[in-house]
Design goal:
heterodimer; A: 76 residues; three-stranded antiparallel sheet; 4 strands; 21% strand; globular; B: 131 residues; alpha+beta; two-stranded antiparallel sheet; 29% helix
Chain lengths: 76, 131
């Protein structure tokens, strides 16, 4: 659900609600296509967006770490 | 896209959309844990003093009533309140460490006799549908 720029994600099995701000929803969408490592993920994102970051790889790693901590992504 | 023009899908950003990946120290996810889980946690950690404060020094009879100190067959008060988890086990027939079976039954009966306004009643009430 989109709410005033925020993406609200309800994880039914855990009952947890996650509030996401960009770029987390976009990263999840990119991972929704198929599993990917950080390099592949960044490639997919670059296909869809103009990236704004000092160090894109570092930023993607940081965002993935957040999503992993929230239980929204996991390492294969 | 046979005409070479990209179809516009309002749900899919165009290639020119700028995506700020943010700084490494930024945070883009806030997780709200389910209220039910928090409630369950607090119920298991609530406390039931046996007997309630204000009845210190009195003892617990086998039927769970509070009786004067020295009453034959009565059991001494617990040195510390039971947590909700401990009370739950007690009410299920468990015996806390260091407590004999008959005393444990007396304490369980005490809990079952708790009424609104008694110390520990709200904790006991919260346990009702978890036992």
């Amino acid at each position: 659900m989109l709410l005033d720029g925020l993406t609200i994600l309800y994880h039914r099995p855990s009952g947890m609600t996650h509030i996401l701000v960009t770029p987390a929803p976009e990263i999840l969408a990119a991972l929704g296509d198929a599993p990917a490592d950080p390099e592949e993920l960044l490639r997919r994102i670059c296909e869809r967006f103009e990236i704004e970051a000092e160090d894109a790889a570092e930023a993607v790693a940081a965002r993935l770490a957040e999503l992993e901590a929230a239980g929204l992504v996991r390492r294969a | 896209m046979s005409d070479g023009q990209e179809e516009q899908n309002p749900l899919v950003p165009s290639r020119r959309t700028v995506l700020a990946l943010g700084a490494a120290a930024a945070s883009t996810v806030v997780t709200i844990r389910p209220a039910f889980a928090q409630t369950a946690g607090s119920v298991m950690n609530c406390q039931i003093p046996i007997p309630a404060s204000g009845m210190g020094g009195q003892m617990i009879a086998a039927d769970g009533s509070v009786v004067p100190s020295g009453t034959p067959g009565a059991f001494p008060p617990l040195m510390r309140p039971l947590t909700g988890e401990e009370a739950k086990r007690l009410l299920q027939g468990g015996t806390p460490a260091g407590v004999d079976y008959q005393a444990a039954q007396a304490y369980a009966n005490y809990i079952r006799r708790l009424q609104p306004g008694n110390g520990g009643y709200s904790c006991y009430a919260s346990l009702q549908n978890r036992i």
